[in-house]
From TrEMBL:
GO terms for cellular component: plasma membrane; side of membrane. It is found in: Cell membrane. Interacts with BMP2 and BMP4. Interacts with BMP6. Interacts with BMPR1B. Interacts with TMPRSS6. Residues 109-333 form the Repulsive guidance molecule C-terminal domain. The gene is Hfe2. This is Hemojuvelin. It holds the Pfam family RGM_N. It comes from Pycnonotus jocosus (Red-whiskered bulbul). Belongs to the repulsive guidance molecule (RGM) family. The keyword Cytoplasm does not apply. Acts as a bone morphogenetic protein (BMP) coreceptor. Through enhancement of BMP signaling regulates hepcidin (HAMP) expression and regulates iron homeostasis. It is a lipid-anchor; GPI-anchor. Keywords: Autocatalytic cleavage, Cell membrane, Disulfide bond, Glycoprotein, GPI-anchor, Lipoprotein, Membrane, Phosphoprotein, Signal. Signal peptide: none annotated. One of its GO terms (biological process) is BMP signaling pathway.
Length: 342
């Protein structure tokens, strides 16, 4: 199946075409792309990338008023030897770039986070404090599975913290082998479970990469093939998770995959009030003073910080809320939504 070659020839032919005046040349490139897919159709039956390309061409022909009849460009010469093997697949494994070519605009992004007690900020900017114990899925879609395991923050406490995170990057034929990342308290590895630091030997393997931002404290995983970045942190005796995901990727799930804390928040029966009640391990005024040093705006991140410090007695929880806010600052597509007030 030569669909990757068709894709790369199309991208190369349209790289310099921009704006409303691209008309005839763009239509010529699309007809050439279509001809290339027809020539490889017999060997590409059942190939997802092939069928996706065929539908994409039809949509673009309609959007740009291109006639199916007309001139096509001669096939482009093969790239010279210095190009690494797998040159053709690189565009397929760059989600943002291929989305831009297909739709004429950059993709939209969404942000979700789980930190502290755990507190969940959903893709839709809802904010819940949960008493979930055991293992719960944060994400479960066609590309990613993320599971958080929680345990009590202290003996006899209702509040829980995330003590283990499992992230599965599902196999994507052109780009990556399936990869599993697992973090536990005091064990934040800078590698996947198989010891690798990227998506494997496939041509687009480098489109999944892991790097250590701060040894034992902060790891970042970039999944360029699905337009997604994940941050995993440890602050005190808890793990936190933040993600910036392409909207199309975040929404790629079925009705059976309906329990995802990043999508629906925590179930009603598992939600807690963040108002400090009863006797905590630290007076509320002390916790507020500690949290105010790191979080001057008294939003839900500040409230979460106060709740966690009062409940646990551990001042390190100020770092959990602060880290989550910093991730939100980086990952949120709309800076005006950074602070949530409840």
């Amino acid at each position: 199946c030569k669909i990757l070659r068709c894709n790369s020839e199309y991208v190369a032919a349209t790289l310099h075409l921009r704006g409303p005046d691209r008309g005839a040349a763009f239509c010529t490139a699309l007809r050439s792309y279509s001809l290339c897919t027809r020539r490889t159709a017999r060997t590409c039956r059942g190939d997802l990338a092939f069928h996706s390309a065929v539908h994409g061409i039809e949509d673009l022909m309609i959007q740009n008023n291109c006639s199916k009849e007309g001139p096509t460009a001669p096939p482009r010469p093969r790239p010279p030897a210095p190009n690494p093997p797998g040159f053709e697949s690189l565009d397929i494994c760059d989600y943002e770039r291929s989305f831009l070519y297909k739709h004429g605009r950059p993709p939209s992004f969404q942000h979700c986070a789980a930190f502290g007690d755990p507190h969940i900020r959903t893709f839709h900017d809802d904010f819940h404090t949960c008493r979930v114990e055991g293992s719960w899925p944060l994400l479960d879609n066609d590309y990613l599975f993320v599971q958080a395991t929680s345990s009590p923050v202290a003996k006899g406490s209702n509040a829980t913290v995330t003590s283990k995170l499992t992230i599965i990057f599902k196999n994507m034929k052109e780009c990556i082998d399936q990869k599993v990342y697992q973090a536990e308290l005091d064990n934040l590895p800078a590698a996947f479970q198989d010891g690798s630091v990227n998506g494997g030997a496939r041509p687009g393997g480098s489109s999944l990469a892991i790097r250590e931002r701060s040894p034992g404290r902060h790891v970042e995983i970039r999944a360029g093939y699905i337009g997604t970045t994940i941050a995993v942190r440890q602050a005190g005796r808890q793990l936190s998770f933040s993600i910036r995901a392409a909207e199309e990727v975040a929404g790629a799930f079925t009705e059976e995959q309906d329990l995802q804390l990043c999508v629906g928040g925590c179930p009603r029966s598992q939600r807690m009030s963040r108002s400090p009640r009863g006797r905590g391990r630290v007076p509320a005024e002390t916790a507020q003073a500690l949290c105010r040093e790191m979080l001057p705006v008294e939003d839900v991140y500040f409230q979460s910080c106060v709740f966690d410090v009062v409940t646990s007695g551990d001042a390190n929880f100020t770092m959990a809320a602060h880290g989550a806010l910093e991730d939100a600052r980086l990952f949120l597509p709309n800076a005006e939504k950074l602070h949530i007030f409840q």
